UniProtKB/TrEMBL annotation:
Described function: Catalyzes the reversible isomerization of glucose-6-phosphate to fructose-6-phosphate.
Gene source species: Hungatella effluvii
InterPro entries per record: G6P_Isomerase, Phosphoglucose_isomerase_CS, SIS_dom_sf, SIS_PGI_1, SIS_PGI_2
EC number(s) per entry: 5.3.1.9
Cell compartments where the protein resides: Cytoplasm
Similarity remark: Belongs to the GPI family.
Chain's gene name: pgi
Pathway: Carbohydrate biosynthesis; gluconeogenesis; Carbohydrate degradation; glycolysis; D-glyceraldehyde 3-phosphate and glycerone phosphate from D-glucose: step 2/4
GO molecular function, one term: monosaccharide binding
Catalytic machinery residues: 276 (proton donor), 409
Lineage: Bacteria, Bacillati, Bacillota, Clostridia, Lachnospirales
Record-given protein name: Glucose-6-phosphate isomerase
GO BP field: gluconeogenesis; glucose 6-phosphate metabolic process; glycolytic process
Length: 420
């Protein structure tokens, strides 16, 4: 399980204060563990087996094998919650498949799209367009460009290379029926940012050779733990309480930090989850992420001596998996004190020193993960989704809607001449 520790040398939040807050909010945990009726249409992720049970996993594996047997590249077309989870896993873990996964439909840059297209020539290409309602412009543009590319290369049979993940009855499903694309369910009761453990996140991961059964197993074990643990014994409840107590004390930013750059795209998933879920009604912590040790030479200065508006949450991998020994040579470079050291030990020393220094000035949460693999990714996805549900409820907002995301679209559609 993910193990949580909280340190605050600044004295902003005592253990007694946190425990009292959790006692006051215990009903929120009880309701979330049961699944609240008011959010019934958004809680498909709460039970892992509902959309990642054996039958669905077997179906995903069958479709993924079809791509792996013949393909060289899968282009995933989606934005935000439609690609963040898959990208987090496929870019962090070794690719066990010959199929390379690329990502499009997440911006409107012509230069970026041309770079994607340039990588496709001479390769066997498949695409997976992911859109819950197929009204978002970025994936719509990406799908048009890439399906035209496939049609030009493969002719009438191009449709066998198109997988579309959407909701039943949507325009995207209608396109599948009309043009013979393979349709995968995007659950109606799961929002994009909560969709890591269903077709949305699992199909691209399976194509890349990721052990999705291990991911689901990790999530299932985390579900069992978080749905039964009470009070302060529940790590997600404790994390949500820390976030809200610190928010009440005037902190306005939470910074996710790690000394493992392979978490780069997981950081993006985490940022979207909390920004979209809690940033409403004039409330919410602003979630940001950093890559240590690189960012210690910039953001680290702000943390140590800048405006005290943030607290840090560290992802701590206890058992890194790659050994690299620093060997001596005949160049007197001033770093002989590192001779014979394992780079993992050096990175660990940097992490511990940073955590000690930062926690002396501001509150720091430490989430311990045994190792970085499929099982731990499944655990982290479920842990943060459940914690976000709790935290948003404590904050007094709906953790599952996103009305502000739609505001800019009216102006954009007007400028582009869309009238419906």
């Amino acid at each position: 399980m993910v193990h949580l520790e909280f340190y605050d040398g600044s004295g902003q939040a005592s253990c007694e204060e946190l425990n009292e807050y959790m006692r006051q909010k215990k009903e929120i945990l009880t309701r979330a563990q049961a699944g609240e009726e008011q959010y019934r249409d958004s809680l498909g992720w709460l039970s892992v087996d509902e959309w990642a049970g054996e039958e669905r996993i077997a179906e995903i594996e069958t479709f993924a094998k079809r791509v792996r047997d013949d393909g060289d590249i899968l282009v995933v077309i989606g934005i935000g919650g439609s690609n963040q989870a898959a990208r987090a896993v496929t870019c962090a873990l070794p690719n066990q498949s010959k199929v390379k996964v690329l990502y499009a439909g997440n911006n409107i840059s012509s230069a970026y799209m041309k770079q994607i297209l340039a990588q496709l020539d001479g390769k066997s290409v498949y695409i997976n367009v992911i859109a819950k309602n197929f009204e978002t412009m970025e994936p719509g543009i990406g799908f048009r460009i890439l399906r035209q590319y496939l049609r030009k290369r493969y002719g009438a049979d191009y449709n066998s290379r198109v997988f579309a993940t959407g909701t039943r009855g949507s325009e995207l499903q209608e396109l599948c029926v009309a043009h013979g694309y393979t349709f995968l369910d995007f659950p109606e009761d799961i929002g994009g940012r909560y969709s890591a453990l269903c077709n949305v996140g699992l199909f691209p991961a399976a194509v890349a050779g990721i052990d999705i059964r291990a991911m689901v197993s990790g999530a299932r074990d985390m579900e069992q733990n978080l749905k039964t643990a009470a009070g302060a014994e529940n790590s997600a409840f404790q994390y949500a309480a820390i976030r809200n107590v610190l928010y009440q004390k005037g902190f306005r930013m939470e910074m996710l930090a790690s000394f493992e750059p392979r978490y780069q795209y997981f950081n993006g998933w985490w940022t979207q989850l909390f920004a979209e879920s809690e940033g409403k009604d004039g409330k919410g912590l602003y979630p940001v992420a950093v890559k240590y040790s690189e960012d210690l030479h910039s953001i680290g200065q702000f943390v140590q001596e800048g405006t005290p508006v943030l607290f840090e949450t560290f992802l701590d991998i206890e058992n890194p998996d790659e050994e690299l020994i620093l060997e001596a040579d005949d160049v007197d470079d001033g770093f002989d004190y590192l001779n014979g050291a394992d780079l993992r030990e050096v990175n660990r020393a940097a992490f511990l020193a940073t955590f000690q220094a930062h926690s002396e000035r501001l509150p720091c949460v430490r989430l311990k993960i045994k190792e970085l693999n499929e099982y731990s990714f499944g655990q982290l996805f479920y842990f943060f989704e459940f914690a976000c549900y709790l935290s948003g409820s404590m904050l007094g907002v709906n953790p599952f809607n996103q009305p502000g995301v739609e505001n800019y679209k009216g102006y954009m559609f007007q400028a582009l001449g869309k009238h419906k």
